[in-house]
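Researcher: Let's run the pair from yesterday's discussion. Sequence first, then tokens, for each.
Model: Starting with the first of the pair.
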Amino acid sequence: MECVLVTGASGYLGLHCVAKLLAQGYLVKGTVRSLSREAEIRESLSKANINHENLSLLEADLADDAGWKDATDNCDYVLHVASPFFIGEPKDPEHWINLASDGTLRVLRAASAAGVKKVVLTSSCGAITESTSKAESFSENNWTDPALARVSTYFKSKTMAELAAWAFVSSAGENSKMALTVINPSMIVGPSLSDDLGVSNDIIKRMIDGSTPVTIALHFGYVDVRDVAEAHVLAMQNDHSDGERLIVSEREMWLKDVAKLLRKNGYKKAPSIELPNFLTQLFGLFNAEARSTTKILGQKRITSANKAKNILAWSPRDIRNSILESARQITSLEKSN
């Protein structure tokens, strides 16, 4: 029976990856920063009717070398999902950028030393779409320029971590037979297996509870968390994905269209007004979170997933249904608390 390590196993995407692998009969190791999360993880899997007898959890932190040798020992594959995720601009950007890159290299070094066959790394469309180009459509051949002033710390961290991963594999050359595939998801939404709803779902939460009274002119691709987990497992299983970057995205939407979908389905507090760009920019002078978005206002970002569909036979679900599933879960959790 093959063994797969999933880093960040307690997270929104990581737990979906764990569930999918267990359902397919793999032995699964999962890293968490603290084993105090173990009961919560196992309870979440039980609620989803996933047998977790073949799951073992280990403590390992991206900021520390300890634990990674034990985590990768006897593993055939690694899904490196763990990464710092945040909205807005942190006080110490370099800390988060370095943590993402150094943590990725820790995992890759341990995986290579353990003889792992393949690592599938979670990156982001944010490592693709931010450049001096005026293009609206992007492919896996495009790279974000981390030196651009408008690039957020999060997008920078994902770009630098991915570049570090490709450089590591390239420098290893024939000394390592470990393959690398990178998954570049757009905005990930959809139902969570736990109470951790993921950062992207917070946008939906703030729309339906009325704490976001207006939308702004932001355009993103969206993809269901279950389909992102599926893409990771398919990439792991498919040698044709070796050495490839793969965008996974179902469709692009403006924030106002997300709000319109929610209103149409009974979420009356979802905003009906889009703030003019000049007012958004003015507000950004006084609010750090808003400031990080003002640099990309009104810009389309079309990220085709044709490559993933062709190589992996990946077929994502309609993201509009996923957004509504997220909204229902958020509402249900609020009623139960």
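Model: Moving on to the second of the pair.
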Amino acid sequence: MLENIHRTTAYIKSRIGDFVPEVGIILGTGLGGLVNEIEVEKQLMYANIPDFPISTVEFHSGKLIFGKLGGVNVVAMQGRLHYYEGYNMQQITFPVRVMKMLGIKTLYVSNASGSLNPGFKKGDLMVIEDHINLQPQNPLIGRNDSDLGPRFPDMSQPYRIDLIEKALNIASANNIICHKGVYVAVTGPNLETRAEYRYLRIIGGDAVGMSTVPEVIVARHMDLPVFAISVLTDEGFPEVLTPVSLEEIIAVAQEAEPKLTLILKELIARN
């Protein structure tokens, strides 16, 4: 894997010249519009990058964007990879390792997720303070390469506390409803049953989604600080559960996106 990482990194560097990103951004379902705030210097299609997996999900465009956001050099993944697409965990997290090799110092992750907490409503934002991993594979399984990170990385603080507090302060100052909570990662692609929503709430989840945790595990393995935020696009409340479609999820995500963009842009500019 390390050989592939170096080959991919070398190719990208040959295309972006002396541009060195300080921040990496992963944009979730329906949340690719943050790219409009980036002063774009270079765009690379995933399909044209050696060894880079290709996003197959609708509304994930599959571009690596290089430019400035809030005066900071960033690289943004416009379209992420998911376990349910058939990729293994090493493939899903490969871009995080490449971004680290390109020079990023912090990883910012966004996603669309379902609320499990009755106090968190559809359209609200939630800063992730911790997570529960219910996905069946771990990206660190297999031989460990000490050049990438330790065999047993600590996960007592997977998300940077100072960035969490700063994000909540930015939200408050701009009258944005933004909670702090625990994210549960499942495989998908189906949404959850009533009993599953009930179970996920019982074990301590505030929101549920199908991504993010593998990338966070690998980032922490490489000693990359992480900030993550969810747009709550639907409500998994067993008592009043109603069917939801992808179109509805995308619509809510896109409506909430300007709030998420404001928080990320200000947070990145301040750090």
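Researcher: Give me one sentence on the second I can quote.
Model: Strands lie at 23-27, 39-45, 63-69, 72-78, 106-115, 125-133, 178-185, 207-209, 226-235.
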